């Protein structure tokens, strides 16, 4: 499986998007930036914004994961089951958190706690599952390994 490995993103436990998270397949990288935006809004939500933030995250996750799963299907990507299972587990949690807020059983603290779990989960998912798909899709579409251009860490903008 050497030929479907992407360049490993640097270990990064930050809750903010950075170029260290780029995987080299443009459409996926754009979606991943959006993941950080919606997860950050969830992380910083207040009582009055929590339900909208959970709904926005859930809508993002449905699109994000169905897009990746469509890429897997259409390109006949081989090891797809555990990837789909992780997506399904996140969608199930998002649905449960949304329902808890809708019924009044949960509040903004639950939403923020969910955001922390999402942001802790994402780097491992991206490094071990999405990166393989990104490399596969780059090869499938462009006939080569992804090229990742990162700004120098610590360099002034
Ligand atoms: Fe992803
Ligand atoms: Fe994924």
Our count of domains comes out at 1
> What does the oligomeric state look like here?
single chain
Q: What is the CATH topology descriptor? A: Four Helix Bundle (Hemerythrin (Met), subunit A)
CATH classification class: Mainly Alpha
Total helical segments? 4
General description of the model:
The protein is built from four helices and no strands. The chain is 65% helix and 0% strand. It has a single domain (24-142), classed as Four Helix Bundle (Hemerythrin (Met), subunit A). The protein is globular. Helix 1 (26-43) runs antiparallel to helix 4 (108-142) and helix 2 packs antiparallel against helix 3 (81-103). The termini are far apart. The chain is mainly α. Bound molecules: fe (ii) ion (2 copies). The site of one fe (ii) ion has 6 residues, from helix 3 and helix 4. One fe (ii) ion binds at residues 68, 83, 87, 125, 129-130.
Key features of this structure:
157 residues, mainly alpha, Four Helix Bundle (Hemerythrin (Met), subunit A), disordered N terminus, binds fe (ii) ion
């Amino acid at each position: 499986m050497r030929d479907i490995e992407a360049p490993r993103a640097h270990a990064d436990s930050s809750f903010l998007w950075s170029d260290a998270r780029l995987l080299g397949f443009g459409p996926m990288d754009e979606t991943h930036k959006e993941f950080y935006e919606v997860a950050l809004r969830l992380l910083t939500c207040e009582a009055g914004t929590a339900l909208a933030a959970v709904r926005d995250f859930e809508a993002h996750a449905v699109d994000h994961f169905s897009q990746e799963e469509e890429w897997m299907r259409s390109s006949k990507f081989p090891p797809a089951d555990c990837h789909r299972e992780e997506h399904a587990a996140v969608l199930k949690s998002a649905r449960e958190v949304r329902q808890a807020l809708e019924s009044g059983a949960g509040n903004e603290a639950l939403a923020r706690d969910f955001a922390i779990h999402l942001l802790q989960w994402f780097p491992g998912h991206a490094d071990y599952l999405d990166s393989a798909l990104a490399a596969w899709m780059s090869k499938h579409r462009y006939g080569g390994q992804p090229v990742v251009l990162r700004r120098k860490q610590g360099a002034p903008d």
